[in-house]
């Protein structure tokens, strides 16, 4: 497989603040050779979701969606962007591709997996007069894939469809498929760069980017929103907005930036135009496994203690009255869980 970029350069590119602008020229030589070598087959299926992840991918700017679909990958099945539909499409473009390419194709899953009532809450077609449920499709196809890319928080962690009371018993992909590597690219929706960059990494280097404890590529999800927020100065000076539109940190209005991992502050959305807090909203923490299991527009009564902790959040606990919010125990737990005390740090990407 052609490799014009070293792994280290690629990671730096993806993690850089101007990735959206600079990714295209670096990927161009690779894409030309990938087209000659034959891009890997990709099957994209949708379960319980809103199709927002597909829409987000279609908004990719650098490279363009044409380049992604025609040169980077060979998209064999996608319910929205292909002309064919119905039984023939399911049989020829999906089941046949999976059977003819065992262990060689990638399966992208968008949406959670409804498992209640034997999966009948989500059917994708019929076979011999019987419904093909999404959970059956995922088992049939997913178990033959080289890897599964769970795009969006619903596929990665259950997301909105799996939020209690969850009458359809929706589950994340990882609770259904156990025998195939899974990369989670969460977000509601995920940024197109996170999806394209993850696919490009896997194709370029033949393996997966370094993942965090929630299966997310570290190159996009290692940063805490709060650390690079342009309202951070307000936070440090304890100036908090009371209403939307006020100057000030949005913490009191429900901002989840202190516990949310993504690089939107520097990557920006919509081709590098804006991001969630800059446009006057709060960070709703859409990339986290707990999303949306918290009041979106209310300040969290306490900050969770766990792998999402960072030194910054520890300090947050101290500033806001750490004894009540986190306490010394939480501080230590965060340090241990993040590997700064007593734990073994993962090798950094690109140091091999
Ligand atoms: S709490 Fe939200 S608005 Fe305030 S500094 Fe952190 S990320 Fe920015
Ligand atoms: S800033 Fe917050 S709401 Fe915006 S994409 Fe990142 S995690 Fe989601």
TrEMBL record:
User: Per the record's keyword annotation, is Metal-binding included, yes or no?
Assistant: yes
Main localization, broad class:
other
Residues binding [4Fe-4S] cluster 1, per UniProt: 50, 53, 154, 188
Instruction: Provide the top EC class.
Output: oxidoreductase
InterPro entries on file:
Cytochrome-c3_hydrogenase_C (IPR027394), NADH_UbQ_OxRdtase-like_20kDa (IPR006137), NiFe-Hase_small_C_sf (IPR037148), NiFe_Hase_small_N_sf (IPR037024), NiFe_hydrogenase_ssu (IPR001821), TAT_signal (IPR006311)
Indicate where this protein resides in the cell: Cell envelope
GO BP: anaerobic respiration
UniProt-listed Enzyme Commission number(s): 1.12.99.6
Coiled-coil annotation reads none
Q: What is this protein called?
A: Hydrogenase (NiFe) small subunit HydA
Say which species the protein is native to: Syntrophothermus lipocalidus (strain DSM 12680 / TGB-C1)
Q: What is the lineage of its organism?
A: Bacteria, Bacillati, Bacillota, Clostridia, Eubacteriales
């Amino acid at each position: 497989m052609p490799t014009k970029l070293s792994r280290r350069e690629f990671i730096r590119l993806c993690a850089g603040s101007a990735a959206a602008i600079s990714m295209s020229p670096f990927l161009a030589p690779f894409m030309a050779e990938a087209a000659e070598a034959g891009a890997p087959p990709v099957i994209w299926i949708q379960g319980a979701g809103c199709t927002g992840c597909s829409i987000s991918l279609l908004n990719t700017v650098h490279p363009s969606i044409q380049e992604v679909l025609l040169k980077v990958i060979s998209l064999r099945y996608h319910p929205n962007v292909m002309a064919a539909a119905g039984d023939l499409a399911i049989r020829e473009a999906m089941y046949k591709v999976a059977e003819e390419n065992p262990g060689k194709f990638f399966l992208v899953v968008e949406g959670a997996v409804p498992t209640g009532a034997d999966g009948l809450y989500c059917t994708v077609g019929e076979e011999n007069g019987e419904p093909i449920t999404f959970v059956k499709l995922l088992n049939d196809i997913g178990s033959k894939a080289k890897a599964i890319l769970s795009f969006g928080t619903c596929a990665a962690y259950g997301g909105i469809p799996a939020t209690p009371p969850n009458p359809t018993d929706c589950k994340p992909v990882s609770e259904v498929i156990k025998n195939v590597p899974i990369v989670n690219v969460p977000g509601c929706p995920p940024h197109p760069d996170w999806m394209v960059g993850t696919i490009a990494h896997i194709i370029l280097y033949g393996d997966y980017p370094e993942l965090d404890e929630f299966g997310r590529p570290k190159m996009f999800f290692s940063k805490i929103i709060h650390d690079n927020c342009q309202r951070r100065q307000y936070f440090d000076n304890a100036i908090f907005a009371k209403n939307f539109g006020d100057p000030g940190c949005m913490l009191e209005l429900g901002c989840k930036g202190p516990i949310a991992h993504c690089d939107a502050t520097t990557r920006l959305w919509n081709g590098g135009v804006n991001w969630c807090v800059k446009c006057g909203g709060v960070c709703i923490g859409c990339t986290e496994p707990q999303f949306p299991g918290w009041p979106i527009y209310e300040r969290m009564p306490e900050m969770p203690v766990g792998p999402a902790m960072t030194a910054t959040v520890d300090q947050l606990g101290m500033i806001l009255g750490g004894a009540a919010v986190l306490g010394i125990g939480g501080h230590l737990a965060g340090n241990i869980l993040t590997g700064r005390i007593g734990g073994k740090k993962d090798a950094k990407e690109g140091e091999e």
